[in-house]
Design goal:
two-stranded antiparallel sheet; about 20% strand; two-stranded parallel ribbon; alpha+beta; 3 helices; about 40% helix; about 80 residues; single chain
Length: about 80
């Protein structure tokens, strides 16, 4: 429905700030992120995740450096 509406008015749609809380089981978290990203991209929408280092983090700070969760990066197709 949104994709049809955006096409009708020649608009670009952006889905912002989707994510999964870090305490969720890792495999479930990765699957949800992969599936959600796929649906958003399949509709032709852009996306961003929520958030870098907070409750829904895709990375953690260790000794001042960012360490990304490899399962999350794979789920988001960020290699």
């Amino acid at each position: 429905l949104v994709a049809q509406w955006a096409g009708q008015y020649d608009l670009v749609v952006q889905c912002t700030e989707f994510g999964v809380i870090q305490q969720a089981p890792a495999s479930d978290r990765a699957r949800w992120l992969r599936d959600t990203r796929g649906l958003i991209e399949g509709a032709g929408f852009g996306w961003t995740v929520w958030d870098l280092t907070g409750t829904f983090a895709i990375a953690n700070r260790e000794q001042g450096q960012l360490r990304f969760d490899p399962q999350v990066l794979e789920a988001l197709a960020a290699r």
